Amino acid sequence: MHIPDGILGPAVTLAGYAGTAAVMAVCLGQIAKRDDPRRDVPKAAMLTAAFFVASLVHVPIPPTSVHLMLNGLLGVVLGWFAFPAIVVGLFFQAVMFGHGGLTTLGVNALVLGLPSLLAFALFSARHRLLPAAPWSDAAVGFVAGAGAVAAAVVLVAVVVLAGLPAHVDPDLERRAIQVFALAHVPLMVIEGVVVAMVLAFLRKASPELLLGR
Amino acid sequence: MSCLDLERGVAESPLNRLDPRFRIVACLVLAFAFSAVTALWLLPLMVALVVGLVAISGLGPLTLWRRLRWPGLIVLLLVALLPWSVGTTAVVQLGPLVLYQEGLATALLIAVRFGCIVAVVLVILTTIPVPVLIHALRSMRVPWLLTDLALLVLRYLHELRHTLERMRVAMMLRGQPLRGASPRALRAWAGLIASLALRSYVRADRIYLAMRVRGYGEELAPPWSFRAGARDWAFLASATAAASFLVLAERAW
Protein backbone atom coordinates (compact mmCIF):
# COMPACT_ATOMS: atom_id res chain seq x y z
CA MET A 1 0.00 0.00 0.00
CA HIS A 2 1.71 3.09 -1.26
CA ILE A 3 0.81 6.68 -1.93
CA PRO A 4 2.16 7.40 -5.42
CA ASP A 5 3.90 10.58 -6.58
CA GLY A 6 1.83 13.48 -7.82
CA ILE A 7 -1.01 13.43 -5.29
CA LEU A 8 0.56 15.17 -2.31
CA GLY A 9 2.09 18.63 -2.28
CA PRO A 10 5.61 19.40 -1.00
CA ALA A 11 4.42 20.54 2.45
CA VAL A 12 3.13 17.03 3.23
CA THR A 13 5.91 15.11 1.46
CA LEU A 14 8.71 17.15 3.06
CA ALA A 15 7.05 16.76 6.46
CA GLY A 16 7.01 13.02 5.69
CA TYR A 17 10.77 13.04 5.06
CA ALA A 18 11.35 15.00 8.29
CA GLY A 19 9.19 12.58 10.30
CA THR A 20 10.94 9.59 8.75
CA ALA A 21 14.35 11.08 9.60
CA ALA A 22 13.25 11.54 13.22
CA VAL A 23 11.89 8.00 13.58
CA MET A 24 14.96 6.62 11.78
CA ALA A 25 17.25 8.46 14.23
CA VAL A 26 15.44 6.82 17.15
CA CYS A 27 15.66 3.35 15.54
CA LEU A 28 19.35 3.70 14.62
CA GLY A 29 20.05 4.99 18.15
CA GLN A 30 18.43 1.88 19.65
CA ILE A 31 20.33 -0.42 17.27
CA ALA A 32 23.65 1.34 18.04
CA LYS A 33 23.26 0.47 21.75
CA ARG A 34 23.84 -3.21 20.96
CA ASP A 35 27.26 -4.82 21.56
CA ASP A 36 27.87 -5.45 17.86
CA PRO A 37 25.21 -3.70 15.73
CA ARG A 38 26.78 -5.02 12.49
CA ARG A 39 26.15 -8.62 13.56
CA ASP A 40 22.40 -8.19 13.16
CA VAL A 41 22.57 -6.51 9.74
CA PRO A 42 22.70 -9.75 7.67
CA LYS A 43 19.84 -11.20 9.72
CA ALA A 44 17.74 -8.08 9.21
CA ALA A 45 18.63 -8.01 5.50
CA MET A 46 17.76 -11.68 4.92
CA LEU A 47 14.46 -11.38 6.76
CA THR A 48 13.68 -8.09 4.98
CA ALA A 49 14.33 -9.76 1.62
CA ALA A 50 12.23 -12.78 2.65
CA PHE A 51 9.24 -10.68 3.75
CA PHE A 52 9.65 -8.37 0.77
CA VAL A 53 9.50 -11.35 -1.60
CA ALA A 54 6.57 -12.88 0.30
CA SER A 55 4.64 -9.61 0.17
CA LEU A 56 5.02 -9.46 -3.62
CA VAL A 57 3.22 -12.78 -4.06
CA HIS A 58 -0.47 -12.53 -4.87
CA VAL A 59 -2.60 -14.83 -2.75
CA PRO A 60 -5.39 -16.04 -5.06
CA ILE A 61 -8.74 -15.49 -3.35
CA PRO A 62 -11.31 -15.95 -6.14
CA PRO A 63 -12.61 -13.86 -7.87
CA THR A 64 -9.61 -11.63 -7.10
CA SER A 65 -6.23 -11.84 -5.39
CA VAL A 66 -4.60 -9.92 -2.57
CA HIS A 67 -1.02 -9.39 -1.63
CA LEU A 68 -0.03 -9.38 2.01
CA MET A 69 1.60 -6.26 3.50
CA LEU A 70 3.40 -8.04 6.37
CA ASN A 71 4.38 -4.77 8.07
CA GLY A 72 3.07 -6.07 11.41
CA LEU A 73 5.08 -9.29 11.06
CA LEU A 74 8.15 -7.26 10.10
CA GLY A 75 7.79 -5.24 13.31
CA VAL A 76 7.34 -8.32 15.48
CA VAL A 77 10.34 -10.18 14.01
CA LEU A 78 12.76 -7.34 13.25
CA GLY A 79 11.97 -4.95 16.11
CA TRP A 80 13.95 -1.70 15.74
CA PHE A 81 15.26 -2.90 12.36
CA ALA A 82 11.70 -2.88 10.97
CA PHE A 83 11.63 0.83 10.17
CA PRO A 84 14.99 0.90 8.30
CA ALA A 85 13.90 -2.30 6.52
CA ILE A 86 10.66 -0.67 5.38
CA VAL A 87 12.53 2.42 4.12
CA VAL A 88 14.92 0.20 2.13
CA GLY A 89 12.02 -1.86 0.75
CA LEU A 90 10.09 1.26 -0.29
CA PHE A 91 13.21 2.75 -1.90
CA PHE A 92 13.69 -0.38 -4.00
CA GLN A 93 10.02 -0.49 -4.93
CA ALA A 94 10.08 3.16 -6.03
CA VAL A 95 13.36 2.99 -7.96
CA MET A 96 13.39 -0.57 -9.29
CA PHE A 97 9.72 -1.39 -9.81
CA GLY A 98 8.07 2.03 -10.13
CA HIS A 99 5.66 1.33 -7.24
CA GLY A 100 5.07 4.00 -4.63
CA GLY A 101 6.98 7.18 -5.13
CA LEU A 102 10.16 9.11 -4.52
CA THR A 103 8.60 12.32 -3.17
CA THR A 104 6.20 10.23 -1.07
CA LEU A 105 8.92 7.90 0.27
CA GLY A 106 8.92 9.63 3.67
CA VAL A 107 5.13 9.61 4.01
CA ASN A 108 4.92 5.97 2.90
CA ALA A 109 7.65 5.01 5.37
CA LEU A 110 5.65 6.55 8.21
CA VAL A 111 2.37 5.04 7.00
CA LEU A 112 3.83 1.51 6.98
CA GLY A 113 6.62 1.89 9.54
CA LEU A 114 4.78 3.43 12.49
CA PRO A 115 2.19 0.60 12.62
CA SER A 116 5.12 -1.80 12.32
CA LEU A 117 6.82 -0.29 15.38
CA LEU A 118 3.49 -0.36 17.23
CA ALA A 119 3.21 -4.08 16.42
CA PHE A 120 6.73 -4.53 17.83
CA ALA A 121 5.78 -2.65 21.02
CA LEU A 122 2.59 -4.69 21.39
CA PHE A 123 4.40 -8.00 20.87
CA SER A 124 7.17 -7.00 23.31
CA ALA A 125 4.58 -6.17 25.96
CA ARG A 126 2.46 -9.29 25.40
CA HIS A 127 3.57 -11.07 28.58
CA ARG A 128 2.65 -8.02 30.62
CA LEU A 129 -0.78 -7.96 29.01
CA LEU A 130 -1.61 -11.66 28.77
CA PRO A 131 -0.45 -14.90 30.43
CA ALA A 132 2.54 -16.58 28.71
CA ALA A 133 0.93 -19.25 26.52
CA PRO A 134 0.91 -20.20 22.83
CA TRP A 135 -2.63 -18.84 22.43
CA SER A 136 -1.57 -15.43 23.77
CA ASP A 137 1.23 -15.19 21.18
CA ALA A 138 -1.27 -16.08 18.46
CA ALA A 139 -3.82 -13.56 19.74
CA VAL A 140 -1.25 -10.77 19.93
CA GLY A 141 0.04 -11.86 16.49
CA PHE A 142 -3.46 -11.50 15.05
CA VAL A 143 -3.93 -8.05 16.58
CA ALA A 144 -0.43 -6.96 15.47
CA GLY A 145 -0.94 -8.22 11.89
CA ALA A 146 -4.51 -6.99 11.39
CA GLY A 147 -3.93 -3.81 13.39
CA ALA A 148 -0.84 -2.83 11.38
CA VAL A 149 -2.83 -3.15 8.14
CA ALA A 150 -5.79 -1.24 9.61
CA ALA A 151 -3.55 1.57 10.85
CA ALA A 152 -1.79 1.81 7.48
CA VAL A 153 -5.11 1.88 5.59
CA VAL A 154 -6.54 4.66 7.77
CA LEU A 155 -3.28 6.66 7.59
CA VAL A 156 -3.19 6.37 3.77
CA ALA A 157 -6.83 7.47 3.44
CA VAL A 158 -6.41 10.42 5.83
CA VAL A 159 -3.11 11.60 4.28
CA VAL A 160 -4.40 11.32 0.69
CA LEU A 161 -7.66 13.15 1.40
CA ALA A 162 -5.96 15.83 3.50
CA GLY A 163 -3.20 16.30 0.94
CA LEU A 164 -5.37 16.54 -2.19
CA PRO A 165 -4.84 19.79 -4.10
CA ALA A 166 -8.60 20.45 -4.01
CA HIS A 167 -11.12 21.14 -1.29
CA VAL A 168 -13.04 17.96 -0.50
CA ASP A 169 -16.38 18.11 1.25
CA PRO A 170 -15.89 16.78 4.84
CA ASP A 171 -18.89 14.44 4.48
CA LEU A 172 -17.48 12.98 1.28
CA GLU A 173 -14.07 12.71 2.95
CA ARG A 174 -15.52 10.74 5.88
CA ARG A 175 -17.43 8.41 3.57
CA ALA A 176 -14.38 7.84 1.38
CA ILE A 177 -12.28 6.88 4.44
CA GLN A 178 -15.03 4.49 5.59
CA VAL A 179 -15.35 2.84 2.15
CA PHE A 180 -11.55 2.56 1.78
CA ALA A 181 -11.24 1.02 5.27
CA LEU A 182 -14.16 -1.38 4.76
CA ALA A 183 -12.75 -2.55 1.42
CA HIS A 184 -9.59 -3.60 3.27
CA VAL A 185 -11.31 -5.53 6.09
CA PRO A 186 -10.85 -8.93 4.34
CA LEU A 187 -7.11 -8.17 3.93
CA MET A 188 -6.86 -7.20 7.63
CA VAL A 189 -8.48 -10.48 8.72
CA ILE A 190 -6.37 -12.59 6.33
CA GLU A 191 -3.17 -10.80 7.36
CA GLY A 192 -4.03 -11.16 11.07
CA VAL A 193 -4.66 -14.91 10.69
CA VAL A 194 -1.49 -15.44 8.61
CA VAL A 195 0.70 -13.47 11.08
CA ALA A 196 -0.75 -15.41 14.04
CA MET A 197 0.00 -18.71 12.26
CA VAL A 198 3.50 -17.62 11.23
CA LEU A 199 4.30 -16.67 14.83
CA ALA A 200 2.90 -19.98 16.11
CA PHE A 201 5.13 -21.81 13.61
CA LEU A 202 8.22 -19.77 14.51
CA ARG A 203 7.56 -20.16 18.25
CA LYS A 204 7.69 -23.93 17.81
CA ALA A 205 10.52 -24.14 15.26
CA SER A 206 12.82 -21.29 16.29
CA PRO A 207 11.75 -19.29 19.37
CA GLU A 208 15.08 -17.41 19.42
CA LEU A 209 14.00 -15.71 16.18
CA LEU A 210 11.25 -13.95 18.13
CA LEU A 211 13.60 -13.01 20.96
CA GLY A 212 16.66 -11.87 19.02
CA ARG A 213 15.51 -8.32 18.52
CA MET B 1 22.99 -4.38 -13.06
CA SER B 2 20.71 -1.41 -13.47
CA CYS B 3 17.20 -0.88 -12.17
CA LEU B 4 16.18 -1.01 -15.82
CA ASP B 5 17.36 -3.33 -18.53
CA LEU B 6 19.26 -0.60 -20.29
CA GLU B 7 18.46 -0.18 -23.93
CA ARG B 8 21.14 0.37 -26.53
CA GLY B 9 22.10 4.02 -26.45
CA VAL B 10 21.01 4.63 -22.85
CA ALA B 11 24.33 3.59 -21.35
CA GLU B 12 26.13 5.95 -23.71
CA SER B 13 23.77 8.87 -23.22
CA PRO B 14 25.24 12.12 -21.83
CA LEU B 15 22.90 11.78 -18.84
CA ASN B 16 24.30 8.39 -17.94
CA ARG B 17 27.87 9.69 -17.87
CA LEU B 18 27.08 12.17 -15.09
CA ASP B 19 28.11 11.74 -11.45
CA PRO B 20 25.37 9.65 -9.74
CA ARG B 21 25.40 11.93 -6.67
CA PHE B 22 24.47 14.92 -8.82
CA ARG B 23 21.81 12.88 -10.58
CA ILE B 24 20.23 11.90 -7.24
CA VAL B 25 20.09 15.53 -6.06
CA ALA B 26 18.82 16.80 -9.43
CA CYS B 27 16.13 14.12 -9.48
CA LEU B 28 14.91 15.02 -5.99
CA VAL B 29 14.93 18.76 -6.78
CA LEU B 30 12.89 18.27 -9.96
CA ALA B 31 10.49 15.75 -8.41
CA PHE B 32 9.68 18.02 -5.46
CA ALA B 33 9.31 21.05 -7.76
CA PHE B 34 6.86 19.08 -9.92
CA SER B 35 4.89 18.09 -6.84
CA ALA B 36 4.61 21.80 -5.89
CA VAL B 37 2.94 22.81 -9.17
CA THR B 38 -0.76 23.56 -8.89
CA ALA B 39 -1.21 26.03 -11.80
CA LEU B 40 -2.53 24.27 -14.90
CA TRP B 41 -0.64 26.59 -17.26
CA LEU B 42 2.67 25.25 -15.92
CA LEU B 43 1.82 21.66 -16.84
CA PRO B 44 2.87 21.97 -20.53
CA LEU B 45 6.23 23.38 -19.37
CA MET B 46 6.71 20.42 -17.05
CA VAL B 47 5.85 17.99 -19.82
CA ALA B 48 8.25 19.76 -22.22
CA LEU B 49 11.06 19.54 -19.65
CA VAL B 50 10.43 15.82 -19.16
CA VAL B 51 10.26 15.19 -22.92
CA GLY B 52 13.63 16.94 -23.25
CA LEU B 53 15.16 14.76 -20.53
CA VAL B 54 13.72 11.60 -22.10
CA ALA B 55 15.21 12.63 -25.46
CA ILE B 56 18.67 13.15 -23.91
CA SER B 57 18.46 9.86 -21.95
CA GLY B 58 18.01 7.70 -25.04
CA LEU B 59 15.17 5.78 -23.38
CA GLY B 60 12.62 4.56 -25.87
CA PRO B 61 8.94 5.47 -25.54
CA LEU B 62 8.12 1.79 -25.07
CA THR B 63 10.19 1.58 -21.87
CA LEU B 64 8.58 4.72 -20.57
CA TRP B 65 5.11 3.44 -21.41
CA ARG B 66 5.76 0.10 -19.74
CA ARG B 67 6.60 1.93 -16.50
CA LEU B 68 3.71 4.38 -16.71
CA ARG B 69 1.18 1.75 -17.76
CA TRP B 70 0.23 0.74 -14.23
CA PRO B 71 -0.09 4.05 -12.41
CA GLY B 72 -1.35 2.51 -9.23
CA LEU B 73 -4.86 2.05 -8.04
CA ILE B 74 -4.95 5.25 -5.98
CA VAL B 75 -4.04 7.52 -8.93
CA LEU B 76 -6.53 5.73 -11.21
CA LEU B 77 -9.30 5.99 -8.63
CA LEU B 78 -8.64 9.67 -7.96
CA VAL B 79 -8.45 10.59 -11.64
CA ALA B 80 -11.67 8.67 -12.33
CA LEU B 81 -13.65 9.92 -9.31
CA LEU B 82 -12.50 13.48 -8.62
CA PRO B 83 -14.15 15.13 -11.69
CA TRP B 84 -17.52 13.72 -10.58
CA SER B 85 -17.28 14.41 -6.88
CA VAL B 86 -15.23 17.56 -6.15
CA GLY B 87 -16.11 21.13 -7.06
CA THR B 88 -19.01 23.54 -7.43
CA THR B 89 -18.85 24.63 -11.10
CA ALA B 90 -20.78 22.14 -13.22
CA VAL B 91 -19.46 21.55 -16.74
CA VAL B 92 -21.73 18.73 -17.94
CA GLN B 93 -24.66 16.90 -16.36
CA LEU B 94 -25.28 13.27 -17.35
CA GLY B 95 -28.41 12.22 -15.47
CA PRO B 96 -27.54 12.12 -11.77
CA LEU B 97 -23.82 12.59 -12.54
CA VAL B 98 -22.33 16.07 -12.67
CA LEU B 99 -18.88 16.76 -14.07
CA TYR B 100 -17.21 19.57 -12.12
CA GLN B 101 -14.56 21.94 -13.44
CA GLU B 102 -12.53 21.96 -10.18
CA GLY B 103 -12.50 18.16 -9.95
CA LEU B 104 -11.48 17.88 -13.60
CA ALA B 105 -8.60 20.34 -13.03
CA THR B 106 -7.44 18.44 -9.92
CA ALA B 107 -7.55 15.10 -11.75
CA LEU B 108 -5.53 16.56 -14.64
CA LEU B 109 -3.02 18.05 -12.21
CA ILE B 110 -2.54 14.75 -10.36
CA ALA B 111 -2.23 12.73 -13.58
CA VAL B 112 0.37 15.06 -15.16
CA ARG B 113 2.37 15.50 -11.94
CA PHE B 114 2.41 11.73 -11.44
CA GLY B 115 3.50 11.06 -15.03
CA CYS B 116 6.23 13.71 -14.95
CA ILE B 117 7.69 12.60 -11.58
CA VAL B 118 7.70 8.92 -12.58
CA ALA B 119 9.35 9.81 -15.90
CA VAL B 120 12.02 11.96 -14.21
CA VAL B 121 12.82 9.20 -11.70
CA LEU B 122 12.94 6.68 -14.53
CA VAL B 123 15.22 8.79 -16.70
CA ILE B 124 17.61 10.19 -14.09
CA LEU B 125 17.66 7.64 -11.25
CA THR B 126 16.51 4.26 -12.53
CA THR B 127 19.21 4.21 -15.21
CA ILE B 128 21.95 4.22 -12.52
CA PRO B 129 23.19 0.69 -11.74
CA VAL B 130 21.78 -0.18 -8.29
CA PRO B 131 25.11 -0.94 -6.54
CA VAL B 132 26.49 2.39 -7.84
CA LEU B 133 23.34 4.14 -6.63
CA ILE B 134 23.76 2.69 -3.14
CA HIS B 135 27.48 3.57 -2.98
CA ALA B 136 26.61 7.09 -4.16
CA LEU B 137 24.09 7.36 -1.31
CA ARG B 138 26.76 6.14 1.11
CA SER B 139 29.18 8.80 -0.12
CA MET B 140 26.39 11.34 0.52
CA ARG B 141 26.49 10.34 4.21
CA VAL B 142 23.37 8.17 4.26
CA PRO B 143 23.81 6.01 7.44
CA TRP B 144 25.92 2.87 6.88
CA LEU B 145 23.21 0.65 8.31
CA LEU B 146 20.78 1.68 5.57
CA THR B 147 23.25 1.25 2.73
CA ASP B 148 24.55 -2.09 4.07
CA LEU B 149 20.99 -3.29 4.53
CA ALA B 150 20.11 -2.16 0.98
CA LEU B 151 23.13 -3.93 -0.56
CA LEU B 152 22.41 -7.18 1.28
CA VAL B 153 18.68 -7.09 0.52
CA LEU B 154 19.53 -6.53 -3.14
CA ARG B 155 22.03 -9.41 -3.04
CA TYR B 156 19.48 -11.94 -1.71
CA LEU B 157 16.25 -10.64 -3.20
CA HIS B 158 16.35 -12.59 -6.45
CA GLU B 159 17.68 -15.70 -4.74
CA LEU B 160 14.87 -15.74 -2.19
CA ARG B 161 12.33 -15.12 -4.94
CA HIS B 162 13.48 -18.31 -6.67
CA THR B 163 13.51 -20.17 -3.34
CA LEU B 164 9.93 -19.09 -2.65
CA GLU B 165 8.87 -20.19 -6.12
CA ARG B 166 10.47 -23.61 -5.62
CA MET B 167 8.77 -23.95 -2.23
CA ARG B 168 5.41 -23.04 -3.76
CA VAL B 169 5.78 -25.67 -6.46
CA ALA B 170 6.81 -28.26 -3.87
CA MET B 171 3.77 -27.43 -1.72
CA MET B 172 1.43 -27.73 -4.69
CA LEU B 173 2.97 -31.11 -5.58
CA ARG B 174 2.38 -32.26 -2.00
CA GLY B 175 -1.27 -31.30 -2.46
CA GLN B 176 -1.25 -28.35 -0.05
CA PRO B 177 -3.75 -25.74 -1.25
CA LEU B 178 -2.48 -22.23 -1.98
CA ARG B 179 -5.77 -20.92 -3.31
CA GLY B 180 -8.67 -19.29 -1.48
CA ALA B 181 -9.03 -18.01 2.06
CA SER B 182 -9.92 -21.31 3.75
CA PRO B 183 -8.12 -22.04 7.06
CA ARG B 184 -6.14 -24.78 5.24
CA ALA B 185 -4.99 -22.41 2.51
CA LEU B 186 -4.05 -19.68 4.99
CA ARG B 187 -2.13 -22.23 7.07
CA ALA B 188 -0.26 -23.29 3.92
CA TRP B 189 0.63 -19.64 3.17
CA ALA B 190 1.73 -19.05 6.76
CA GLY B 191 3.90 -22.19 6.61
CA LEU B 192 5.46 -20.96 3.40
CA ILE B 193 6.29 -17.52 4.83
CA ALA B 194 7.55 -18.95 8.13
CA SER B 195 9.76 -21.51 6.33
CA LEU B 196 11.25 -18.79 4.16
CA ALA B 197 11.91 -16.61 7.21
CA LEU B 198 13.49 -19.54 9.05
CA ARG B 199 15.75 -20.49 6.14
CA SER B 200 16.84 -16.85 5.83
CA TYR B 201 17.49 -16.54 9.56
CA VAL B 202 19.57 -19.73 9.72
CA ARG B 203 21.61 -18.66 6.71
CA ALA B 204 22.22 -15.13 8.00
CA ASP B 205 24.75 -16.25 10.65
CA ARG B 206 26.88 -18.01 8.03
CA ILE B 207 26.67 -14.95 5.81
CA TYR B 208 27.83 -12.71 8.66
CA LEU B 209 30.84 -14.93 9.38
CA ALA B 210 31.77 -15.00 5.68
CA MET B 211 31.44 -11.21 5.57
CA ARG B 212 33.71 -10.83 8.61
CA VAL B 213 36.33 -13.02 6.93
CA ARG B 214 36.18 -10.72 3.91
CA GLY B 215 36.74 -7.68 6.15
CA TYR B 216 33.22 -6.47 6.85
CA GLY B 217 33.25 -3.64 9.40
CA GLU B 218 36.82 -2.58 8.64
CA GLU B 219 37.58 0.62 6.78
CA LEU B 220 38.05 -0.47 3.18
CA ALA B 221 38.54 1.63 0.06
CA PRO B 222 35.13 2.24 -1.55
CA PRO B 223 34.60 0.25 -4.78
CA TRP B 224 33.57 3.41 -6.62
CA SER B 225 35.08 6.85 -6.31
CA PHE B 226 33.01 9.73 -7.51
CA ARG B 227 34.51 12.88 -8.93
CA ALA B 228 32.39 15.79 -10.03
CA GLY B 229 33.27 17.81 -13.13
CA ALA B 230 31.96 20.92 -14.84
CA ARG B 231 29.27 18.92 -16.67
CA ASP B 232 27.87 17.57 -13.39
CA TRP B 233 27.68 21.06 -11.88
CA ALA B 234 26.09 22.41 -15.07
CA PHE B 235 23.46 19.65 -15.02
CA LEU B 236 22.61 20.25 -11.37
CA ALA B 237 22.49 24.03 -11.92
CA SER B 238 20.13 23.57 -14.89
CA ALA B 239 17.85 21.25 -12.93
CA THR B 240 17.81 23.65 -9.96
CA ALA B 241 17.11 26.62 -12.25
CA ALA B 242 14.21 24.76 -13.92
CA ALA B 243 12.82 23.70 -10.53
CA SER B 244 13.18 27.24 -9.12
CA PHE B 245 11.42 28.68 -12.16
CA LEU B 246 8.45 26.34 -11.65
CA VAL B 247 8.19 27.14 -7.93
CA LEU B 248 8.61 30.91 -8.42
CA ALA B 249 6.22 31.03 -11.39
CA GLU B 250 3.66 29.18 -9.30
CA ARG B 251 3.87 31.88 -6.62
CA ALA B 252 4.24 34.92 -8.88
CA TRP B 253 1.33 34.28 -11.25
Please give a structural write-up.
The complex is a heterodimer of chains A (213) and B (253). Helices cover 74% and strands 4% of the residues of chain A. Chain A is mainly alpha-helical. Chain A has one domain: Arp2/3 complex 21 kDa subunit ARPC3 (Orthogonal Bundle), CATH 1.10.1760.20. Chain B has 2 domains: 14-128 and 227-252, no CATH class; 142-213. Chain B has 9 helices and 2 strands, in the order ααααββααααα. Chain B has helices spanning 20-36, 43-57, 61-68, 73-85, 101-125, 130-139, 144-173, 183-213, 230-252; strands at residues 90-94, 97-100. In chain B, strands 1-2 form a two-stranded antiparallel ribbon. In chain B, α1 packs parallel to α9 (230-252), α4 (73-85) packs antiparallel against α5 and α6 (130-139) runs antiparallel to α7 (144-173). Chain B is flat, with a radius of gyration of 24 Å. Classes of the chains: A mainly alpha (213), B mainly alpha (253). At the A-B interface, α1, α2, β1, α4 and α9 of A face α1, α4, α5, α7 and α8 of B.
Helix content of chain A: over 70%
Tell the overall outline of chain A: globular
Which residues of chain B form runs of ≥5 with pLDDT under 50? Answer: none
User: For this entry, what is the oligomeric state of its chains?
Assistant: heterodimer
Quickly give the structural class of chain A.
mainly alpha
Any idea what the radius of gyration of chain A is?
17 Å
Task: Present the secondary structure layout.
The complex is a heterodimer of chains A (213) and B (253).
Chain A: H1 10-32, H2 40-56, E1 58-61, E2 64-67, H3 71-78, H4 82-97, H5 105-124, H6 126-129, H7 134-163, H8 170-183, H9 185-205, H10 207-211
Helix pairs in contact in A: 1-5, 2-4, 3-4, 3-5, 3-7, 4-5, 5-7, 7-8, 7-9
Chain B: H1 20-36, H2 43-57, H3 61-68, H4 73-85, E1 90-94, E2 97-100, H5 101-125, H6 130-139, H7 144-173, H8 183-213, H9 230-252
Antiparallel strand pairs in B: 1-2
Helix pairs in contact in B: 1-5, 1-9, 2-5, 4-5, 6-7, 7-8
